[in-house]
Amino acid sequence: MTILVTGATGNVGRNVVDLLVRAGADVRATSRDPDALDVPAGVDVRRADLAEPETFEQALRGVEKLFLYTQPAGVEGVLEVAKAAGVGHVVLLSSLAAAGRDPDHWIARWHLAEEAAIERSGLAWTFVRPGAFAANSLQWAEFVKKGEPVPILYAHSYLSSIHERDIAEVSTCALLQDGHAGAKYHITGGESITQAEQLALIGRAIGRELAFVDLTGDAARADFRARIGGRFEELVAEGTVGRGDASSIIETRIRYYEEALDGPEEIDRTVEKVLGKPARTFAEWAEDHKADFTN
Ligand SMILES: NC(=O)c1ccc[n+]([C@@H]2O[C@H](COP(=O)([O-])OP(=O)(O)OC[C@H]3O[C@@H](n4cnc5c(N)ncnc54)[C@H](OP(=O)(O)O)[C@@H]3O)[C@@H](O)[C@H]2O)c1
Prior knowledge:
Elements: E1 2-5, H1 11-22, E2 26-31, E3 44-47, H2 56-59, E4 63-69, H3 75-85, E5 89-93, H4 106-121, E6 124-130, H5 141-146, E7 150-153, E8 158-159, H6 164-176, E9 184-187, E10 193-194, H7 195-206, E11 212-215, H8 217-237, H9 246-259, H10 270-275, H11 282-288
Parallel strand pairs: 1-2, 1-4, 2-3, 4-5, 5-6, 6-9, 7-11
Antiparallel strand pairs: 8-10
NADP nicotinamide-adenine-dinucleotide phosphate binds next to helix 1.
């Protein structure tokens, strides 16, 4: 059985490839730039771009299961190619935003649209819906490495950030085992702690006390606007957001952090139910990523 992993250079896809290879599966991996793919020996590497569904015709030939990273443009076309190729099951990297209170949130809209396209396709599916990635903290690395205080949006907001390895393990189970078709897995990390506590855990892992600047209100808005500046044009081009969405994206994010100041979130136990072991903690993530925070 051949399994195709898209987004194989990404935080999650890279781990899915590794886990499948360890399990002895026949793995094919795609990237828009296959030369950038650093995969274990034996993995069949192909170029494919979701924005050009025809590039999947070759990549999907003979494939039975598909791990799909998507973006809005092109998903319908890729699903048609998958059906024609005889793919039996799609495991989608979606988002917990798709299950959220705010279906108009741009991330929710994007992932709900791709989930709906998969449901309409008639292919068997599993939707993996993670909450915030622990890997988002990698954006702090440049400050930590320079020894500068880390600017954190709402440092005292609580997150139950999930280790990318747990997302990949749940996805790999859905690819390799029966019984996961039709499941929507809402998955989070093993604990809900503040971002300031997360930074302290990174500090403990690398043996340094780390300072931060707590950005709230208009300072948070300004910082966020600067961060999404260039990326916003890319999101508009790939169809992820509309041109008029910039300020609503910022306000949605601010609201999300302000609500998260109230206290720890309830921890979801789905990772434990699927894998038979608890989700990793942020301290484990920080240990695994020490090298990313040191020169
Ligand atoms: N960050 C969070 O807190 C969070 C939470 C929930 C869900 N998510 C979802 O998780 C996904 C991001 O996952 P990640 O962190 O593993 O990814 P990532 O590290 O950001 O990497 C993005 C991956 O997407 C691939 N990609 C981008 N555009 C593509 C295209 N046009 N065609 C084919 N592949 C393309 C890239 O492949 P190449 O560049 O090699 O082609 C790369 O492997 C998003 O859907 C996001 O909404 C994120």
